[in-house]
Write a structure and sequence with these properties.
8 copies of one chain form a homooctamer.
Chain A (H helix, E strand, L loop, with lengths): L16 H5 L5 E2 L5 H12 L7 E3 L3 H5 L3 H5 L2 E3 L4 E3 L10 E6 L5 H14 L2 E5 L8 H11 L3 E6 L4 H7 L6 E5 L11 H8 L6 E3 L5 H17 L1
Amino acid sequence: MTRTPHAAPGIRFDIERDRRIGLPEAVFSEGKSEEALLALFTRFANPDEKPILFTRVALERFAALPEDLRAAYDYDPLSRTAWAKTCPKHATGCAAVVSAGTADAFVTREAARTLEYLGYEVRLFEDCGVAGLWRIQAAIAEINACDVVIVAAGLDAALASVLGGLTDRPLFAVPTSVGYGIAEGGRTALSSMLASCAPGVAVMNIDNGYGAACAAARVLRLLNAS
Amino acid sequence: MTRTPHAAPGIRFDIERDRRIGLPEAVFSEGKSEEALLALFTRFANPDEKPILFTRVALERFAALPEDLRAAYDYDPLSRTAWAKTCPKHATGCAAVVSAGTADAFVTREAARTLEYLGYEVRLFEDCGVAGLWRIQAAIAEINACDVVIVAAGLDAALASVLGGLTDRPLFAVPTSVGYGIAEGGRTALSSMLASCAPGVAVMNIDNGYGAACAAARVLRLLNAS
Amino acid sequence: MTRTPHAAPGIRFDIERDRRIGLPEAVFSEGKSEEALLALFTRFANPDEKPILFTRVALERFAALPEDLRAAYDYDPLSRTAWAKTCPKHATGCAAVVSAGTADAFVTREAARTLEYLGYEVRLFEDCGVAGLWRIQAAIAEINACDVVIVAAGLDAALASVLGGLTDRPLFAVPTSVGYGIAEGGRTALSSMLASCAPGVAVMNIDNGYGAACAAARVLRLLNAS
Amino acid sequence: MTRTPHAAPGIRFDIERDRRIGLPEAVFSEGKSEEALLALFTRFANPDEKPILFTRVALERFAALPEDLRAAYDYDPLSRTAWAKTCPKHATGCAAVVSAGTADAFVTREAARTLEYLGYEVRLFEDCGVAGLWRIQAAIAEINACDVVIVAAGLDAALASVLGGLTDRPLFAVPTSVGYGIAEGGRTALSSMLASCAPGVAVMNIDNGYGAACAAARVLRLLNAS
Amino acid sequence: MTRTPHAAPGIRFDIERDRRIGLPEAVFSEGKSEEALLALFTRFANPDEKPILFTRVALERFAALPEDLRAAYDYDPLSRTAWAKTCPKHATGCAAVVSAGTADAFVTREAARTLEYLGYEVRLFEDCGVAGLWRIQAAIAEINACDVVIVAAGLDAALASVLGGLTDRPLFAVPTSVGYGIAEGGRTALSSMLASCAPGVAVMNIDNGYGAACAAARVLRLLNAS
Amino acid sequence: MTRTPHAAPGIRFDIERDRRIGLPEAVFSEGKSEEALLALFTRFANPDEKPILFTRVALERFAALPEDLRAAYDYDPLSRTAWAKTCPKHATGCAAVVSAGTADAFVTREAARTLEYLGYEVRLFEDCGVAGLWRIQAAIAEINACDVVIVAAGLDAALASVLGGLTDRPLFAVPTSVGYGIAEGGRTALSSMLASCAPGVAVMNIDNGYGAACAAARVLRLLNAS
Amino acid sequence: MTRTPHAAPGIRFDIERDRRIGLPEAVFSEGKSEEALLALFTRFANPDEKPILFTRVALERFAALPEDLRAAYDYDPLSRTAWAKTCPKHATGCAAVVSAGTADAFVTREAARTLEYLGYEVRLFEDCGVAGLWRIQAAIAEINACDVVIVAAGLDAALASVLGGLTDRPLFAVPTSVGYGIAEGGRTALSSMLASCAPGVAVMNIDNGYGAACAAARVLRLLNAS
Amino acid sequence: MTRTPHAAPGIRFDIERDRRIGLPEAVFSEGKSEEALLALFTRFANPDEKPILFTRVALERFAALPEDLRAAYDYDPLSRTAWAKTCPKHATGCAAVVSAGTADAFVTREAARTLEYLGYEVRLFEDCGVAGLWRIQAAIAEINACDVVIVAAGLDAALASVLGGLTDRPLFAVPTSVGYGIAEGGRTALSSMLASCAPGVAVMNIDNGYGAACAAARVLRLLNAS
């Protein structure tokens, strides 16, 4: 006899989060069961529900949803994010999202899409790795025209320090799991960013584009409030 | 010529374990061969055998058993536990099982099901992570009405310290492998729980819901004896 | 000009801790300044103050206190603990504190002294390492006559598993930093205890005899309450 | 024959740093020779020089300077910082610096003193560890009245997540090397903060109070500019 | 155009190894291409070739060989070893192979089969983990009747120390990758065995049953020579 | 609705790299999308494009390309490298590529193919592991007839030190991920090579045959220039 | 008041160890108090006591003993070993102790002195590191004339593999903490020895010359018995 | 009785090293006894001896030598190197030694002094860290006028990648132990350099300026030969 468990895990939505910390709760999809994910996608397809962001939705999992449900969502397979509607646009605030290589795109796009969902303007600057230093130098003026900067890099993550010495903006660095050997999994990039020789570089968990966007949004929100 | 090995690995059941340490031996199913698992499930489906708990029985492995054997067992796919019958109920003793998020459910349910099998009362308090502090505060009075507390959490496992400062009950903390990047595999949660700033938080191996239940049962047994 | 800092760090004593979790706050002396330590020793030498436990008080630091202050305290250099008075004795509850070797004594004594301070009976069983298995076998009956068991061991910490298979009592294992090479600092003992093949062994941070005593006291308190 | 080396290491001051990134270069004193440190203290005691911040100046090293030089500096032994004069005060911008325990003061004070040197207002909230949850709850309203928040914690660093769920301000978390056993050196606190269950918590290197202040200053500078 | 590489990797068989170190070269099959494995199995099926041992031959890989080739080999799927013929039997020398649990059988059997191939007598003692101490105590007299002892254990590997205190025989300990959480992959068992509190326990790489057999054979060979 | 992302990740080719550092940019294929890879293979099949090297092209990925595109490339599945045309041959310069075992071939071949692509002569010396010391001794005279030496080894990588003591040539050591247990993933080989007791052994990332070839090419280029 | 602790740690000498495992108990001096060490040295200076070996006796600690006690002992500062009398000489059995460099001498001498104390013949072969391969080649014939071999090496420990391919004797490898950077503390040497490409190399804990001697003695004892 | 050990450790100088690998043996002074160091300094002060380099000679240890011996040596306390005479100058070959900060000087100077001892020209470029990118850009033309480049950096070691993208010279990167927190000891710099996004950057052990000089000398020697 295959029993169902005592009950489905009891989700306690943190509905007041937005009011407390200025960021609505999001749904982290990895590790959720098929049933739970279906229920959540169904619930938030309802136009009466407030906007919600789904993160880490693998393409196979999104593709397994009923077609009408999929149609209700704006889904991006590279960033693995989905939403039925976004938060209202803010009056001001622009974030630059910079990457060292195209392989970091799954992280840079998660950050960019999260900021878009939260109602902020985003500009992407990809493939600016320091092995060809002219790339970041060509982009720096445009980057400095934004209010906050997110930088994603794997391998040795040297871009974070170089960028930290070229911008006066709040700078959030996201190590990516891109690399092999000693760099595999992103620990080298993480340590490198934490040990940055440029002052005031703040660091997020590996591949945490969502978190970097939230950190940037905390700053942008302050700008809107001030 | 494909030989069978010298002989099947010689299992030496520790039949006296219950008498020595108050906990019957259990069958850890991972790493056991199909043949060994089938033999064990067949043996303990016999009503004349004493109760036994199977842990870490993946759904695919349970589903591969003959239908009549499956019918003889109470199997829960989330906790991956199975039994044909439980131990006798104890006169007293209630355990609270608390989790930070629904993704920890495979551990909290293993702990809960093990305690149920051992004959103790269990109450579940799930999704109490501290990012929304009101959740644990709403549950704390009910938790403190139990005799012992198990807390399961992944990521930074901050719930263990918060709970350790809110309850006077014996508290067993189980780090879970829930998380990514630096948290992947549960080492961060494990270290965090061991370094808890609350006094007297005792820690189990990563994902070891079964062990936490056994530790709790050692306490509850003492209550029944006293 | 050598300035004093803005102000002495603002200590916020958690005076209600005892009421909340059944354990009074203790003073962890490492990392405290000379001035702070002197102030605290002076304050709690006052007979009108409630009892407080000082932990990790190195002999040099205690010896540096004024003689009359030293006279007011019961100080033990091996466990590095001090108190001016203890908590009231409890009606019931006895803890066994077991160690693998005499080099673990700084931890076993910290556990034993903490329990003595908290008002519980303690029995010491030292130098019971499994390389001479007869030692733990000679002591096991007396150990099992206690209500809870604390085991401290360094190196490979094999004693925790052996003891876990010989007692039905709640068992709190403290890895010690005793050892060299791969065992240096206690990580090997910690991992070994967490991976114990005996069920229900709960583990504390390395050298945390104080914490093990608190975990044991959470159980003993329950016995007194029941 | 004891030779002097080829030449003293050739310092290339990054004099334009302030213009590029809004933060003047600072002098990290650890690892600098006695001669180099003396030369730098002498140079920046000159009233014609621009303000400079010396960090990680151990008390013994400051005490070894000539008395007239010491008199020219505002030196704080707890934070190990020194300056001859500060940067001009900014029109707006206040930072909250929160700590889990008084042992974290060497980090919180480094952050606070750096912000003071940079011309920003600072408020200190110390000893707010979550084992006594009322402490952070008592302080949260005042914390949220500041523009940015820095949180310093060692051990399991659970305060970062709890605070992350209680404030909408940009939040920079500094793990401290406070703790022993598994927590020794600050790796556990670092991992815990990176894995925070609260969104948008950005993390600095272990004990890097200076860096957290710079990250906060990048935000405050933006507020002054907007 | 898919090119073949410059040439197949140039194997240089160490044909004189047996003469130099008393152990013939063996074929480690993991990481070898299908073609290379087929060629080697074909070559050593030839009765004119000297005996060779294949290790780490996964069942799928053996099953993929032509039927007549499979028929020429004695293959054991649990130990993943194969041979067409064994080395001559030695006049004397018996090895005990002891394990903590049945999950270690893939290692104990690799050790036992290697010794059988090398011409030595082997006795198996499985499932002797110390959580039920009577198991090793029941077997110890028979174990001590052998000349050398191999012990395989995962998790906390406490059996190595207990056995090291009960036998005067040369003792080779093999940590196994059996376990989860902190024990996953065998590092905990490895460290534990290296830190054994029993004197003279020598340790092999994780899961290296073959190496333990070779180490034992170096001793047994000496006995035959003396 | 499954959206395409904002845009394909914006590749910024570092076309001037060759002029700056003497090495043309290469395409690291892992982590690139199917579309990106197809586009790049199509572009560089054009005879008007300059030569480009594709690395880490798994056989499945190459096989998935259209047949006419595959026909335009020289692809080697063992080294996972592909090119449509090579760089011009250099007048002088020969590299020896030495390996410890045939399992290292995926790395040695990547190094050899990269050097061939860059226009240098290469000689392969495989299966020279030190367990049979005669193998490297038989090859050493021929190795020393080359200008630079690359050595690839997994496990304990002892060959790097032995070779470092037998050649006066620039020596680049590549640890490989070959091995199991403590050697799994190549960290042991990496550490061993970095700690080599032979002077002047320079080390690359794990499995980085491409990088070793580039390091050797930097030397060979100098020889052609001098 | 400075109290003496409850009692001196209760030493339980494992007096039957010799009978059980063929090796008498030894006194590991590190971490023992001055009082305990003095008591033990006094006791075993008595000619009626059986022989005992003191290990890890730092020169300062030995020098602090009373002069008449020092006169009763054979103390060697390099190996940090002391004894008042040795065990009886055995009829047969010779061990070779080989090292890579002179910096390993504190380990090789501990092994050699332990074997001398146990009554076995020892031959030393020092400074045989493989960067100058002729050194081990010059010594190998004499090494192979012994019954068992101990090899001590730090850094990359390549000597263990080279020696493992040149001798048919039981081979016990001791990693030493000699080295800096990645080799500091001996982990690299330890991993390298465990991953040795030569079959049957058994490994001891870092710097454990005493353990290697015990492992060798287990073999030599067997030779005397056979 | 304090015995001298069996004999002083038997040094076997590798006198033929220069002939085999083009680099004379050097004396690594750390871990050598006072007596051994005195003997070696005495021997090589003899004008008839060939030149020898002493590395890692701490100032205290050099200062403890007799004055006349000190007078015979060229000693540099920053690099901790000493020689009585240098090798003959080479006809050609110049090395650039670049550092990120002045705190790296103990490593850059060890590299520079070793090259000077070996008879090569050296140019120093210190304090070129990328937080102020103009520093490396100002120096790059002069760096590229040398034949080989050594780069030393601690913290995140981002300079290695930036430099790797700006020079076509053989490039040897030395991570330094400069930094704190996650960067302490140099592991972060080491990993970062190994994972460099610039092709062909070869890496040495942490703080191994001597090794980098040897690697560079292997290249420069080739230039002199060609």
